[in-house]
Design goal:
Number of helices: 4
CATH topology: Glutaredoxin
Order of helices and strands: EHEHEHEEEHEEE
Structural class: alpha/beta
CATH class: Alpha Beta
Number of strands: 9
CATH architecture: 3-Layer(aba) Sandwich
CATH superfamily: Glutaredoxin
Strand content: 15-25%
Length: 166
């Protein structure tokens, strides 16, 4: 059994076993070596992994080493956090999260406590439980800290589009 006091590195080959079949709720941090915001949140993930060991599993997936998982879950930016319980997605957050926002996301997705619609701490209107925010908005990324969008090349996937102009 892996050490649950530190985030577990997962790949396409280990994702099913470590994440989907986990008896514990799992937070998957999708990251890339070139992603500066991803490096900033690592200490928070390590701290929470230690504090919540045995209650929540934390995993890290490099977008290049888990390209099939990235495509199957529709991950389009890093950092992205996927919250899964018994193999089912409970929610996700995109962009760097500070420790307070991360703990709030854990409570929201794993404690099952419904939140009333209304303003949230970032000032954006929360659409309420079970509703997605408007297209193009993000409830998780703090102001001035956008997530980095992934292109096909960042995933090691060749684009099928061909330019008509050569």
């Amino acid at each position: 059994m892996p050490d649950l006091s530190t985030p577990i590195r997962v790949t396409d080959g280990t994702f099913e076993r470590v994440v989907v079949r986990s008896p514990l709720p799992v937070v998957v941090h999708f990251t890339a070596p070139w992603c500066a915001p991803c490096r900033v949140v690592r200490p928070t993930l390590t701290e929470l992994s230690e504090k919540l060991s045995g209650r929540v599993t934390f995993a890290t997936a490099d977008v290049d080493e888990a390209a099939r998982v990235v495509l199957s879950y529709g991950i389009q930016a890093v950092p992205t956090y996927l919250f899964l319980d018994q193999g089912r997605e409970k929610g996700r957050a995109v962009g760097p999260l500070d420790p307070v926002a991360f703990r709030g996301s854990l409570r929201l997705h794993f404690a099952g406590e419904p939140r009333p619609a209304g303003p949230n701490p970032s000032g954006a209107r929360d659409p309420g439980p079970g509703r997605r925010p408007p297209e193009g908005s993000s409830r998780s990324a703090p102001r001035g800290a956008p997530a980095l969008t992934l292109g096909a090349g960042a995933l090691g996937v060749r684009s099928e589009r061909r330019s008509a102009v050569r």
